[in-house]
Design brief:
single chain, alpha+beta, 41% helix, 21% strand, four-stranded antiparallel β-sheet
Length: 337
Amino acid sequence: MVQTSARLLALLSLLQVRREWTGEELADRLEVGARTIRRDVDKLRSLGYPVESARGVAGGYRLGAGGELPPLLLDDAEAVAVAVGLRTAASGSIAGIEETSVRALAKLEQVLPDRLRRRVRALGDVTSAFSFEQPQIDADLLAEVAGACRDGAQLRFAYVARDDRSSQRQTEPTAVVYSGHRWYLVAFDLDRDDWRTFRVDRIRGRVRVGGRGRRRTIPGGDAAAYVKSQLQRGGGERDGAGEPGRVRVAAPAQRIRPRVPGRYAAVEPDGEDACVVSTHGGWHPSFLVWMATLDEPLEILGPPELRVAARGLVGRLAAAVPVTADDPAPAAADRGR
């Protein structure tokens, strides 16, 4: 059994992990009695944490948003800075921390007072970032979807499929996954009685969080692996073509790797003077543009659809720039390619 101060921190951590707990669940987790849980909740309230409770069979404890920010060792300005930073990271601007940022953002926004939420959203409305061929999604929507996954709540939303057909979906959401290009929601579709992946940027309007849903296990137990398999098979909403794009570059891997976004593609040596660049998941037309801007000799290895797309791009560029007598002669390096 842990000491009182450590137990209070453990209780606070549990309240931040899930939206609602019964007293019995908290008592089992902390290996104490129900009376101890009630006393500890009172202590948290005395410290300024807005712990809400409801009586009855469906009752429980939850950490709500208070009139003031709970004592998280952050002042108002720091809390706003952290929230804005998490939103920026969640947009994919920093490789490798997108999903962690969404989980942290969902926790922080759960307890932010309304006045601070307004400041965070105001900063988001007037701040923009450059991204190449990357869908932009609403950070509030992403945080709300992630919160529903965390809380095991049902989620209803309007969804536009890739054929532009709109439908209402009633789901039990389980996880959000970042593919390196798009955000996906993995959920059990109650109307279709099957698992589905949804592109978050195709969710329209406000999402409606319902009652408690059934906590389900994603097929295979790994949300990221499940989304990747769906994209490769062409199931759900595909991220470009299903197969990864592969391009051989006539330059050493150590020279190319720093110039290729690691969250989108991997660079593997192919001998001392060449390397192969492969996309994570399905390829996107922007992959061809990245490769062209490397200004190195290229060979497209596959899939065949990527070769077709490349020929089309080359043809359109050639047609857009007719050769004239006034054009300068190509450089020696260009003539050799």
